[in-house]
Design brief:
GO terms for molecular function: FMN binding; metal ion binding; phosphopantothenate--cysteine ligase activity; phosphopantothenoylcysteine decarboxylase activity. With about 230 residues, this protein is of the alpha/beta class. The protein contains 5 helices and 14 strands. The strands form 4 sheets. Strands 5-4-1-6-9-10-12-13 form an 8-stranded mixed beta sheet, with helices on both faces. The chain binds cytidine-5'-triphosphate and calcium ion.
Length: about 230
């Protein structure tokens, strides 16, 4: 019988994928986080692996388990995620699918905060987290050839994502509308628009696995010298 081997167009390539939320501690038992199941990032890592890439999968505490056959680097906070991405370099491409918390608690406590009986909540102070995507996109040396960001938006999705792409300096942005009524957050499907220097290309609503396969295909095409 003739067995057709899957094409391994990313063999010999190294891709970093960030995925899941980050957790920013308030004290040992409490944290601040973004909503993210990690499903889309996990599917992307699996699709890149299927094309033969070596994948460094830098993941926050996600709901879905990481894929098999990738290097899993588990982190908690945005600062740890930035350090893990830095340690995984050099890479041919990076896909930043993580829902990174924008702030960490600057006055996080080593011990559990107790209610003091006054009924008032303790005051939390916040400090901005490093923007991992912007940092990687603007690395003066050792920048991956292709840097892909995500933009989960609820309003003016394409405009906001286009501005985000320019501001951060990444090559592509995968934008999606996460208005609760779409059912995309936490669901198994996604409807994305790929924004590049060629403009905005909207894909139909697909399973997250199919979005991942298409994106991995495009990455393989681009790294082999093809068009965006
Ligand atoms: N991102 C990152 N590090 C951060 C924040 C975001 O790497 N500290 C990445 C995300 O993984 C994603 C992209 O940047 O690929 C866009 O994230 P988003 O939260 O939409 O962008 P922000 O610049 O944080 O803008 P907003 O104020 O809309 O949250
Ligand atoms: Ca953000």
């Amino acid at each position: 019988a003739v067995v057709s081997l899957p094409s391994r167009r990313l063999a010999g390539r190294h891709v970093i994928v960030t995925s899941g939320p980050t957790h920013e501690p308030i004290d040992p038992v409490r944290y601040i986080a973004n909503r993210s199941s990690g499903a889309q990032g996990t599917a992307i890592a699996a699709a890149l692996r299927d094309l033969g890439a070596r994948v460094s999968f830098v993941t926050g505490p996600a709901e879905v388990p990481p894929p098999e056959g990738v290097d899993v680097i588990a982190v908690e906070t945005a600062r740890e995620m930035r350090d893990a991405v830095g340690a995984a370099l050099p890479a041919d491409a990076a896909v930043m699918a993580a829902a990174v918390a924008d702030w960490h608690v600057a006055n996080a406590r080593d011990g559990k905060i107790k209610k003091d009986g006054s009924g008032r909540m303790p005051a939390l102070e916040f400090a901005e987290n490093p923007d991992i995507l912007a940092w990687l996109s603007q690395l003066p040396q050792g920048r991956p050839e292709l840097v892909v960001g995500f933009a989960a938006e609820t309003d003016d999705v394409i405009d906001n994502a286009t501005i985000k792409r320019d501001r951060k300096g990444c090559d592509w942005i995968v934008a999606n509308d996460v208005t609760p009524a779409t059912g995309i957050m936490g669901g198994s499907e996604n409807a994305v628009t790929l924004i590049s220097d060629q403009g905005a290309e909207s894909w139909p609503r697909l399973s997250k696995a199919e979005v991942a396969r298409r994106l991995a295909d495009r990455i393989a095409e681009r790294l082999s010298g093809g068009a965006a």
